[in-house]
Write a structure and sequence with these properties.
Length: about 425
C-alpha cells in the first residue's frame, strides 16, 4: 500500500481541487488549511455548519472535511445539505469518538471516510489524495462514456489466463432481476440462484436505491434470461435484505439477511435461513451485527461473516444452533470469502483494503494488501489464482496462487 503524499496535479484546463473545511475550533481549521494548501489544494474554511452550507450554495466543492460535533449543525447535517447540492461530493468526517459503530454510522450517512482525533497528518494527506483522485477519475469516466456512447465495458477487469479471457468475451447481461441482485450461486439445474436485497447498495457516493425496488427475495435466473421467484415470504420482520447465498450438502439453499442495514444506526437482528427450491423457507439462526458472506467449509459446517464485529462465525447447519466465533479480522469488515482444499479461508476485508488468509484453526496465515481505496468485497479461487472484486476501484484482480486448489461449492462438491 502506498503512503506517498504528493499533491494531486490538477489538469491544465481546470481549477485545483477545492476542499471545504468545517470545524468550530479555529486551531483545527488553520492546521487543516496549512496542510492542504501545501498539497496544492484550494481550501475554503467555515467555522460552523450554517456558514458551510452558504459556501456550498455559492462555490463548487470537490471534498468536504467536517467535524461531526459542532454547536449549531452537525457534520452529518452539513454533508446531507452538500449531497442535495452536489450528489457527487465526497465527505470525510472527523470525530473524537473512535469506534466501529461510529465509523459505520458516518459511512451510512454519506461520508466516504472518517478520521479520529487526534489524527496523523500523513494519513489525512493520503485519504484526501485518494478521494480527490477517485472523484476526478469518476468524472473522467462519465465524460468518456458520454463521448463514446458506452454504458458497459470490461476494460477494468484484470486476468490473462485463457479461461478468463474466454469468460470476458462471453460476459453479457443475462437477465434483469429488478430490485438489487447481490450474491449468486450456480444451482444443480444449471440456473443461477440470486439473493436480491430489494434494491439498495452502498459505495463511495453513499446509498443507491434501485429505480424498481421491491421486497427482498431469492430468485432463479436461467442463462436464457428467465427470472422467477423462489422464495418471497421470508422469516423475520421486514425489510428483508438477502445478501449472499450458497447451497449446502443437503441440497438446500442457505442465505444471509442482515435485515434493515440501510438504517445502521438502528440495525436490527439479522437472519441466516435456508429454503428448498420450491420456496419452503426455514430460519436457521438469528445473527445480529450484519450477517454478510456465507459458505460451507471443508468440514461441512456453515461459516458466516459478521461484518460489524469483524468476525467469521461458524455453526452446524440446522435450526436452533448458536453460531460461535471462528476468526477475527485485525482490520476491515469481513465480506465475501472462500476456501481452498487445505482448509484455508480467504476473506475480503471491505473498508480495510486488505484480504486475509486464515489457517484452519482461525489464526492469520497471510495478509494481502489490496491498495488504498480498493475495498475488496468478494473472492474466489480457480485456474491457479485468487480472483478478487474491488468495489472501491471497480476492478477484478487476479493474484497468482500456484498449487492452491479451490474447495468446490455445493452441489459440485458431491
Amino acid at each position: 500500500m502506498s503512503t506517498a503524499t504528493e499533491p494531486v496535479a490538477p489538469a491544465t484546463d481546470r481549477r485545483p481541487p477545492r476542499i471545504l473545511v468545517v470545524d468550530d475550533e479555529p486551531s483545527m481549521r488553520e492546521l487543516l488549511a496549512i496542510v492542504l494548501r501545501r498539497e496544492g489544494y484550494e481550501v475554503l474554511l467555515a467555522e460552523n455548519g450554517r456558514v458551510a452550507i452558504n459556501l456550498l450554495e455559492r462555490e463548487p466543492v470537490d471534498l468536504l472535511i467536517s467535524d461531526i460535533k459542532m454547536p449549531d449543525l452537525s457534520g452529518v447535517d452539513v454533508l446531507r445539505a452538500a449531497k442535495k447540492i452536489d450528489q457527487d461530493i465526497l465527505g470525510i468526517m472527523i470525530t473524537a469518538f473512535a469506534s466501529t459503530d461510529t465509523a459505520v454510522e458516518a459511512m451510512r450517512l454519506g461520508a466516504c471516510d472518517y478520521l479520529s482525533k487526534p489524527f496523523d497528518v500523513d494519513l489525512l494527506r493520503m485519504k484526501v489524495r485518494e478521494k480527490i483522485e477517485s472523484r476526478q477519475l469518476r468524472q473522467e469516466n462519465v465524460l468518456l462514456k458520454r463521448t463514446l456512447g458506452l454504458t458497459h465495458q470490461f476494460s477494468n477487469i484484470i486476468g490473462r489466463s485463457e479461461i478468463m479471457l474466454d469468460v470476458f468475451k462471453m460476459v453479457e447481461t443475462v437477465a434483469r432481476t429488478g430490485g438489487g441482485a447481490n450474491g449468486a450461486t450456480l444451482g444443480p439445474d444449471g440456473a443461477l440462484y440470486v439473493a436480491n436485497n430489494g434494491g439498495i447498495a452502498y459505495g463511495h457516493d453513499g446509498f443507491w436505491t434501485a429505480p424498481d425496488p421491491m421486497p427482498g427475495r431469492i430468485q432463479r435466473v436461467t442463462l436464457a434470461g428467465e427470472v422467477r421467484d423462489v422464495a418471497v415470504d421470508l422469516p423475520g420482520t421486514p425489510p428483508h435484505r438477502p445478501n449472499d447465498l450458497c447451497f449446502g450438502p443437503d441440497g438446500l439453499l442457505y442465505y444471509t439477511d442482515p435485515h434493515n442495514w440501510e438504517d445502521l444506526a438502528n440495525l436490527g437482528v439479522g437472519r441466516v435461513a435456508r429454503t428448498t427450491l420450491d420456496g419452503e423457507v426455514e430460519l436457521v439462526a438469528e445473527v445480529p451485527r450484519f450477517p454478510n458472506g456465507i459458505a460451507f467449509g471443508p468440514d461441512d459446517r456453515l461459516y458466516v461473516a459478521q461484518s460489524m464485529t469483524q468476525q467469521i462465525l461458524v455453526l452446524d447447519p440446522r435450526p436452533g444452533v448458536e453460531p460461535v466465533p471462528h476468526c477475527r479480522l485485525p482490520t476491515g469488515f469481513p465480506d465475501g470469502f472462500c476456501f481452498d482444499t487445505a482448509g484455508k479461508m480467504y476473506v475480503c476485508g471491505s473498508l480495510g483494503d486488505v484480504l486475509y488468509v486464515f489457517a484452519p484453526d482461525g489464526s492469520v496465515a497471510e495478509e494481502i494488501a489490496m491498495g488504498a481505496g480498493s475495498e475488496p468485497t468478494n473472492c474466489c479461487l480457480g485456474d491457479g489464482a485468487l480472483y478478487v472484486t474491488l468495489a472501491g476501484s471497480g476492478r477484478l484482480e487476479m493474484i497468482a496462487m500456484p498449487g492452491v486448489e479451490p474447495l468446490s461449492l455445493y452441489p459440485a462438491r458431491r
